[in-house]
């Protein structure tokens, strides 16, 4: 039985029905020359299987170094064959980047195309090693379209709360929302995307995300992650793709640009990033 709340939400969602959403999918790390690569065709197929909308028109922008993508002619789970299936739908664009392009360059290329070559009202970034719930993209866009200052909305990593088997059943009736930015799964309306300038000087994802945070905040909007949009990221070994030298470069550049240390630390023992909340603003 449809409740009053369900009916109200449906009516609200229909207000933005048939809008175009540009979805940037950076195939960063999906390279055939990486031994035992944790991001492969099987991961890509699973991630993309959840990437659909019941009410919006999605335009997918795949950013990749095409010569490095695994291609096995008779393997339907090969990365290039997975992409071929999505391209056959006619609503996709493939953007090439160089083999040594940084993750921020992948995002920048996709964002530039989305704003210059499409009429999309919303821009989404979706990392293809993240599992979202069925209908997750509609809920993400709905949250960004609500009448408050939270316009850049990211999915909330629930790995510490639930196990993979329970993910699809997860439903938080009193969702937590935190000030945060993550490109794993995030959306912003077009007008905000046009105000955010992706800085080409960054070499790592963590400082690029923090720079986006700063830009959104000084424009009097709010970046959040919301448990309304739960996500379950698979492990991605950033330490194998973004060196400590790049991290230190970005740290110095960010501090010079914004005049403070954002408190993002690189741990040599594990080779991963973490956020030092004492240094965050």
Can you put this structure into words, describing what you see?
The protein has 281 residues and is α/β, with parallel strands linked by helices. Helix content is 32%, strand content 23%. It has helices at residues 4-15, 41-49, 79-87, 103-117, 136-144, 190-195, 205-218, 244-258; strands spanning 20-26, 57-64, 92-96, 122-126, 130-132, 150-157, 177-179, 185-189, 222-233, 264-267, 272-275. Strands 1, 2, 3, 4, 5, 6, 7, 8 and 9 form a nine-stranded mixed beta sheet that branches. It has a two-stranded antiparallel sheet with strand order 10-11. α2 (41-49) links the parallel β1 and β2. α2 (41-49) packs parallel to α3.
Task: Outline the fold blueprint.
Blueprint lengths: L3 H12 L4 E7 L14 H9 L7 E8 L14 H9 L4 E5 L6 H15 L4 E5 L3 E3 L3 H9 L5 E8 L19 E3 L5 E5 H6 L9 H14 L3 E12 L10 H15 L5 E4 L4 E4 L6
Parallel strand pairs: 1-2, 1-4, 2-3, 6-9
Antiparallel strand pairs: 4-8, 5-9, 6-8, 7-9, 10-11
What keyword list fits this structure?
alpha/beta; nine-stranded mixed β-sheet; Spore Coat Polysaccharide Biosynthesis Protein SpsA, Chain A; 8 helices; 281 residues; two-stranded antiparallel sheet
Characterize this entry briefly:
32% of the residues lie in helices and 23% in strands.
